[in-house]
């Protein structure tokens, strides 16, 4: 839809229930932007993401760090490079490493962030950063129809309401009617909800320009499994150094025996058992911290994982095991 069509469609639905469209847009844009990531994965300089954050004071994207919790396509000619050139109209030079950072708009106020697929922890950004963001309804890799700025956000709202009308859902949350959907979207409570477990549906947000920890980050939410670990201590140090609020997400954990192959495939129960043996003391419970140990070990000692697969395969299985923990844990 063009801008005017988006406006008319959104206004038509809102008018039925006495909702003012601009007010709804402003309320949505006032919600937190979150950047989900794993704090303990290894960057291309051999240090963990959290160690680099402590030293560098900025959050960088995949083109610079070499780390990802999605597809490894951040290179000239890769899928991520191609969609960025397309949706940002070649604004970034081909050889640029300083490209947008990806997050999502947490309109449903989930304590585990707007897109848990991409990590067990998340930063929440300060409100003023919205003015240098662009938005898509859905993941860029799926070639979404709309990409817009905060002042044309009505186009994302139109896609959101179209999903309500045709599919009965707001992102990953089922709704019974347009009226119920609007009531949820208009709720202005600052209190975060329980775990959202949102793997697949988001309002993707691209932050253009530096993401500086001191000036741009409001809070750091990290999984409870990292308490009393070096990662947890690093998190406390980070928040003290850069004046960030530290918050804890209730631990996501899952019994190894409960992991079935149907959700993410037949290799996931196998790698879960291996990780439990190597890092879980055969306790039969996996969480984000244990999975992080396994990820670092597979990066440093890939030969120990050859019974599961090559480096790329093991990376994918660990990523999919996090999806399982994040959704069911």
Give a short synopsis of this structure.
With 329 residues, the protein is α+β, with helices and mostly antiparallel strands. The protein has helices spanning 3-15, 21-29, 49-56, 62-65, 79-87, 154-167, 178-186, 213-216, 230-242, 261-264, 267-279, 288-300, 311-328, and strands spanning 33-37, 58-59, 101-105, 121-125, 133-137, 147-149, 169-170, 173-174, 203-207, 211-212, 217-223, 245-249, 253-255, 285-287.
Structure annotation, total helices: 13
Strand order, main sheet: write it out. 6-5-9-3-1-4-11-12
Largest sheet: 8 strands, mixed
Quaternary state of the chains: single chain
The level of helicity is 25-40%
Q: Tell me the strand percentage band.
A: 15-25%
Cα-atom radius of gyration:
20 Å
| The number of domains | 2
State the distance separating the first and last CA atoms. Answer: 39 Å
* Structural category: alpha+beta
Shape: globular
Please, could you describe this protein's structure?
With 329 residues, the chain is α+β, with helices and mostly antiparallel strands. The chain folds into two domains: 3-249, no CATH class; 253-328, no CATH class. The protein contains 13 helices and 14 strands. Strands 6-5-9-3-1-4-11-12 form an eight-stranded mixed β-sheet. A two-stranded antiparallel ribbon has the order 2-10. A two-stranded antiparallel ribbon has the order 7-8. It is globular, with a radius of gyration of 20 Å.
């Amino acid at each position: 839809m063009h801008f005017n069509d988006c406006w008319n469609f959104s206004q038509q639905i809102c008018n039925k229930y006495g909702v003012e469209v601009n007010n709804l847009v402003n309320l949505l844009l006032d919600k937190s932007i979150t950047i989900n990531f794993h704090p303990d994965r290894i960057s291309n300089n051999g240090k963990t993401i959290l160690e680099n954050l402590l030293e560098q004071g900025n959050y960088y994207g995949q083109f610079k760090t070499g780390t990802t919790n999605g597809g490894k396509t951040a290179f000239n000619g890769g899928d991520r490079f191609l969609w960025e050139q397309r949706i940002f109209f070649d604004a970034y030079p081909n050889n640029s490493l300083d490209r947008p950072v990806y997050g999502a708009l947490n309109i449903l106020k989930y304590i585990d962030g707007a897109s848990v697929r991409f990590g067990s922890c998340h930063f929440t950004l300060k409100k003023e950063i919205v003015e240098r963001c662009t938005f898509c309804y859905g993941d860029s890799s799926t070639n979404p129809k709309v990409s817009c700025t905060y002042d044309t956000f009505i186009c994302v709202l139109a896609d959101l309401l179209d999903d309500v009308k045709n599919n009965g859902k707001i992102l990953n949350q089922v709704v019974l009617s347009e009226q119920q959907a609007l009531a949820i979207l208009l709720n202005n409570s600052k209190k975060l909800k329980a775990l959202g477990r949102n793997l697949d549906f988001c309002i993707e947000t691209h932050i253009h320009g530096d993401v500086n920890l001191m000036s741009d980050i409001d809070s750091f939410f990290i999984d409870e499994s990292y308490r009393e670990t070096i990662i947890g201590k690093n998190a406390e140090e980070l928040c003290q150094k850069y004046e960030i609020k530290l918050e804890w997400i209730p631990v996501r954990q899952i019994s190894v025996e409960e992991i079935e192959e149907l959700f993410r495939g037949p290799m996931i129960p196998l790698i879960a058992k291996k990780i439990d043996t190597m890092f879980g003391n055969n306790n039969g419970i996996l969480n984000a911290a244990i999975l992080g140990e396994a990820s670092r070990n597979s990066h440093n000692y890939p030969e120990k994982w050859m019974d599961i697969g090559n480096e790329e395969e093991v990376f994918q299985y660990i990523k999919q095991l996090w999806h399982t923990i994040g959704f069911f844990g």
